[in-house]
């Protein structure tokens, strides 16, 4: 969900009343109303250097491991290889609210440092694993660290940059993410092919060391000056309910259509328990918790609801493409490294258009047109993918990927502005944490729904001479290396079955992107604030380094009850 309360540590001493919905949603003065913020100094840019490097570290590992999965599974002779990715996704998604909450209570810098250390620990455990269980355990620890790193990067950007200027910075972060995501699969595939998959994780250690050094030295931002007792009083211990519910839901989505059928009680029970648990958690937060995790005020504006829904749809579409487009290349006979390289037309289009759109929002102060245009390109790109045949040439798959990449890249930088525009700067870190959860959950859902579609289609379309009966998404991955060794005409028949199955997936993505376009029609253009919450979360005041820096004067998500 969102971060735990970003309410003021000083509000423990000054029990300020909760703001009304009206006051919470009144935008702060905009560029028209106040002068531009002061010029950013060297400290600011050094902090952003640290943030960009941390983002690159987490994103690189997330995508690189996919091409190393077969080698890991082969070494341990395990069929549980899908959990190498799922364990990371589960912990990184379910624990996002804890990240924002701990950052509000203990400060940004300590939480970022802890996240990097956890990521490094998980990398070491995975690299040294002597069993598949150790690999999965290590990836779980990595997920906690990786998810926290990405969440903290966005929270700190909110702290230091006003919304009216933030587009360019979020665009650059999106480009860093896209670049790392692009480089990850070829690196992972190359190490796996060389029999050195463990170095995929060991190499994280010096990178994490550099990220830790940059963060420790340069990330000098204000920290709440409260006692340990006050910090513990602000902890939302009911968050455990959310973590359990989210974990249960994610388990059901992960198992559904891959490990077990969707009608299996092993899928239905965790899904039902998880959804019921989330509803119960929200009711408890709204009615009984003094400092709640769920900031209901950020959901009081239509723009925010539409923006979160669009973010979810975008994440589903992105993962549907990134997860299965490499399959299209590999079933044609390309290696993991080659398929990663052939993703470049997509990835290297996403990156610059994320920056372009972010900059355009900063220059114009408007974001609705960019959302609509992004969804239009994404819808057309998904439609073009339906024209791909099993033997289509580079002009087709590369050209289609450029069109899809333009749309998906634009949306990387555009969907957060409708969410943040109605809010005060003090509320925006809440909203960006919830944004991170929705995005992560959407990515997981995108993998799940696309795998289910491919399972159903391949079960119907693959020739019996190759495989008979129902096939899961994981099994489809396992079958791909066999295709290039098949004799004709069976090899062509199997390739056509894969290509035709992917057509159905692309058709579903047309609907998802089209729905995103319709949702964005309902967005309202709101002014972008030129303020930040620098008094509470800005750069350290070096002239008053030892003076207490209070937290926020206003508490979001309800007052004391």
From TrEMBL:
What Pfam families does this protein map onto?
A: MFS_1
- Give start-end positions of Polar residues composition bias: 1-24
GO cellular component entries = plasma membrane
- Membrane topology label: Multi-pass membrane protein
> Keyword Membrane: yes or no?
yes
Please give the Gene3D superfamilies that the UniProt record associates with this protein.
Answer: MFS general substrate transporter like domains
Q: Which InterPro entries match?
A: MFS, MFS_dom, MFS_trans_sf
Sequence segments annotated as region (Disordered): 1-36, 539-561
Compositionally biased tracts (Basic and acidic residues): 552-561
Q: What is its main location?
A: membrane
**What terms describe the molecular function in GO for this protein?**
transmembrane transporter activity
List residues of the Major facilitator superfamily (MFS) profile domain.
Answer: 47-528
Q: Which UniProt keywords apply?
A: Membrane, Transmembrane, Transmembrane helix
Transmembrane segment boundaries = 44-69, 81-106, 113-137, 143-161, 168-187, 199-219, 240-258, 264-284, 305-325, 345-365, 372-388, 400-420, 432-454, 504-523
Name assigned to this protein:
Major facilitator superfamily domain-containing protein
Q: Which organism is it from?
A: Rhodotorula diobovata
């Amino acid at each position: 969900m969102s971060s735990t309360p970003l309410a003021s540590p000083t509000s423990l001493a000054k029990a300020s009343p909760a703001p009304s919905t009206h006051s919470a949603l009144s935008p702060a003065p905009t560029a028209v109303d106040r002068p531009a913020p002061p010029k950013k100094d060297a400290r600011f840019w050094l902090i952003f250097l640290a943030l960009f490097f941390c983002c690159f570290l987490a994103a690189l590992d997330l995508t690189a491991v996919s091409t190393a999965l077969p080698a890991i599974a082969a070494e341990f002779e395990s069929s549980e290889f899908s959990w190498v990715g799922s364990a990371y996704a589960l912990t990184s998604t379910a624990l996002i609210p804890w990240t924002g909450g701990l950052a509000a209570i203990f400060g940004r810098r300590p939480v970022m440092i802890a996240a990097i250390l956890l990521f490094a620990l998980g990398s070491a455990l995975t690299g040294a694993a002597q069993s598949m269980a150790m690999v999965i355990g290590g990836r779980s620890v990595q997920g906690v660290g990786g998810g926290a790193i990405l969440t903290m990067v966005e929270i700190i950007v909110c702290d230091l940059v006003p919304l009216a200027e933030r587009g360019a910075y979020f665009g650059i972060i999106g480009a860093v993410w896209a670049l790392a995501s692009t480089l990850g699969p070829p690196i992972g595939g190359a190490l796996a092919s060389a029999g050195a998959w463990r170095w995929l994780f060991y190499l994280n250690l010096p990178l994490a060391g550099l990220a830790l050094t940059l963060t420790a030295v340069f990330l000098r931002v204000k920290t709440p000056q409260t006692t340990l007792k006050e910090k513990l009083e602000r902890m939302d211990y009911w968050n455990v309910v959310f973590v359990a519910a989210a974990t249960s839901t994610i388990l059901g989505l992960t198992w559904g259509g891959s490990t077990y059928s969707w009608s299996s009680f092993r899928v239905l029970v965790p899904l039902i328990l998880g959804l019921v648990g989330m509803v119960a958690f929200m009711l408890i937060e709204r009615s009984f918790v003094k400092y709640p995790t769920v900031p209901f005020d950020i959901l009081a504006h239509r723009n925010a609801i539409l923006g979160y829904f669009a973010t979810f749809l975008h994440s589903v579409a992105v993962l549907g493409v990134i997860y299965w487009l490499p399959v299209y290349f590999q079933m044609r006979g390309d290696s993991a490294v080659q398929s990663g390289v052939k993703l470049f037309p997509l990835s290297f289009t996403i990156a610059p258009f994320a920056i372009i759109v972010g900059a355009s929002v900063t220059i114009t102060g408007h974001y609705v047109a960019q959302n609509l245009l992004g969804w239009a390109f994404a819808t057309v790109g998904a439609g073009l993918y339906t024209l791909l045949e099993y033997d289509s040439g580079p002009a087709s798959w590369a050209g289609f990927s450029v069109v899809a990449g333009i749309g998906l890249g634009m949306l990387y930088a555009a969907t957060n502005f409708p969410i943040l525009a109605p809010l005060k700067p003090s509320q925006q870190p809440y909203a960006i944490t919830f944004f991170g959860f929705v995005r992560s959950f959407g990515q997981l859902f995108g993998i799940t729904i696309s795998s289910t579609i491919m399972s159903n289609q391949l079960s119907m379309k693959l020739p019996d001479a190759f495989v008979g009966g129902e096939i899961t998404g994981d099994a489809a991955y396992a079958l791909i290396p066999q295709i290039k060794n098949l004799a004709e005409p069976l090899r062509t028949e199997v390739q056509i079955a894969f290509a035709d199955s992917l057509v159905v997936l692309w058709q579903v993505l047309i609907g998802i992107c089209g729905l995103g376009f319709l949702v964005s029609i309902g967005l309202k253009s709101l002014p972008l604030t030129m303020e930040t919450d620098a008094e509470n979360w800005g750069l350290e005041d070096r002239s008053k380094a030892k003076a207490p820096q209070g937290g926020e004067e206003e508490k979001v998500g309800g007052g004391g009850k």
